[in-house]
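Pilot study result, target chain (449 residues):
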Amino acid sequence: MRMLMVTPYPPVRDGIAQYAVQEVKALRRAGHEVEVLSPGPSAAHHHLELRGARGVLALARRVHDYDRVIVQYHPDIFYPHPCAPTERALVTAALLIAFRRAPELEVRVHEIDFARGADSTVDRLLWRSADRIVVHTDAERDQFVAAFRVPPDRVLVEAHGAHFEHRTALSRAEARALLGLPEDERIFLCIGFIQPHKGFDRAVRAFRGLDAAGARLEIVGSVRVEQPEYLEYADELRRLVDDAPGARLHEEYTSDERFDAWIVASDVVVLPYRFIWSSGVLERAALYDRPVIASRTGGLGDQAPPGTTLVADDRGLEAAMSAALGKEAAVAPSLPWPDAPVERERIQAEVQERAAAVRGVPSRARPKGEPAVRGDGARARSAPLRRVPPLAPPMPVSARPGASTLKRLVRRLTAWEIDPLVHQVNKLRDAAIASTERTDPPVDGPSAP
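Predicted structure:
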């Protein structure tokens, strides 16, 4: 069968690219003729700028030449950032055309906004047009079917590591010698791109004091996207590591072989993610039978193999890392995610409201007239500040012909100056909110003389 895979591709530094190259190898071993189309220069056969309606329509003109098309889907591949609602609708409509022109279409979903299923008819039509949709966990499958009303038999669950292969034959001792690691110490490993949702800072805090038990924490990775919040997070991580004896940060983008060597050299792989749907690192750890401590977030509970230690919060992480050394952590019991429906709804409403403010679109998270914040006195005091939405650059859109294109060009040229200012203003807003909530309310009484 002649196939086209649409995906980021090496040497691009991207987790989806690494996932795709292994699937391409597996398909070729099965006897298929596979060509790859990437959204930028790479080792793929074809390159095409896919971001925006024009690029997606160009893709639509190519897909009918193949027997089967596989799309490694992530919104960033197709949707510009920022993306106005009108432009988003145009891109989705163009994707619908591309999906329907493919003789057979299969989509691997790596990330998606499930709220689009309730907000957009064209999004529901888009996903119903796919012959097969592949996700990695049962939780994702159930949510996808409910959100986009796709027939359940079209949404398949495939293990994240279904096509993963070993990239090193080193023993533990050989891997440690290669990486310059001591043979006699217990090694915790965090590895992957350095970004806030990976939560490597959580592992550093949980590790403090464990060096006295002969343990080390090795953090290996690099900043994937040089956005202000990612660079700031890397700075904070460096500071934390400098203050944590036994912890080390290796800022490097590793080869496939060296990545696996780090896993082989470790005793425990730590995935302290704040949010993620599925993890390639978890699958690679399973390939080499390395124990894993992971956050119970997204679909990790479904993906994790037997023996994985799942934790609910920072206290649970500290206890699990101590237990891996045969110690009992002197910490308070873990605090689970709030079970009360009202509290869950309040948190979700606030998250959706902030995201909508950043995108510059109206929020549907809260019915009209309902207060933005419910809760204790501290949150009530900060309510006026929270009602001020985060700052976001204006959308580069215009009703005049050609003006939107010009505005997008200007936005790209000035982003390096504007984005840090926007980020700083939002930091000041967050700091003001935090300061207000930490301040005790005034107490009525006689004033001091």
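One observation from the pilot: Confidence is low (pLDDT under 50) at residues 330-348, 358-375, 440-449. A full batch analysis is planned for the follow-on phase.
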